[in-house]
């Protein structure tokens, strides 16, 4: 009789076909069988979660690890510990804010050297598209980056400048030539203003939704002209939704994501001086948040990813004009999303589609994103009914700075398995390569 290494049973197993009672059988690092909940499946270890949920490991394609160079902000050890604790088994690291940024092959090699032996989950890498590195894009693609990130407005760090319209066109033409993907921070610098004062209202007014819409219009126009595949990062403004929907209906290869903080927080909730809420683009109004949920439900927005962008506490000065902009939430994305999604009538299957299946499809990460035979045995035991009070000091993030501190969230990750092994403190994550 066939013997498996591990069987995990749950009456609430989330599969690509939906939620159902099932037994997931693992042989080696792969899911070898998916059977009825009570099926006799001889295994070295048999775990019955009963009414606890069994999810696929989440895939977070938008994480700033910051190592090397700004490792005091975050690092591969702390970031991937936090990921595993939050049910994330795959991350794709952004090309900034590390030093050097990942804009050429030597920088990619430096980042892999820095990460080696530290990763508690599987890790892939984005490359960067910046002025002057057009000749580096194809070599980076050949070395396995999953695509290229660019900014249309200042990134916040001098070593990663934005692309002009003509530079964006050139980069998209180059990337289309080898079938790559461009992911874009889309804000129009012409419509941004310097914050006029220290308050959140002034900061929010300085980055209007019209800036996002204008930049998205530019990206989809150039994508249509060049034939490139593009993805819009961290959409915070519902002003972008009709532009994206029209472009897709017209055959433009464009997708878009949003983030837990745009779906769970609102400008009306931001206390004065609470710069832990500052990010770019900004958290907007409650009514805007409702429209983002509608865009997510209709598939205009396909992915929900963290945009984990941490910093030291010292950089979060109580002045919105001067504070570093970025939300640290890698460990908290799943419970934050589940808390709000459940309140709005969505199920775990919806959350898994937005946070695992669709991000894996976006980056074309094979073997990830779903509980199905042949995929990596990346699994998460999740108690969807347990509530917990967030204490930032207990997070694995290197710097305990988060707007979720003191909030009660619903859902607790109990165990995370990476390729059939529990994530237990010994790094056994691997580097992932994009399609060549």
From TrEMBL:
InterPro entries named among the record's database cross-references: Allantoinase, Amidohydro-rel, DHOase/Allantoinase_Hydrolase, Metal-dep_hydrolase_composite, Metal_Hydrolase
Record-level GO cellular component terms: cytoplasm
Cofactors demanded by this protein: Zn(2+)
Single Gene Ontology MF annotation: zinc ion binding
EC number(s) given by UniProt: 3.5.2.5
Domain (Amidohydrolase-related) ranges: 54-423
Example of a GO biological process term: allantoin catabolic process
Enzyme class: hydrolase
Keywords: Hydrolase, Metal-binding, Purine metabolism, Zinc
Pathway: Nitrogen metabolism; (S)-allantoin degradation; allantoate from (S)-allantoin: step 1/1
UniProt cross-references to PANTHER family, sorted A to Z: ALLANTOINASE (PTHR43668:SF2)
Family: Belongs to the metallo-dependent hydrolases superfamily. Allantoinase family.
Binding partners and assembly: Homotetramer.
Protein name: allantoinase
Source organism per UniProt: Nonomuraea solani
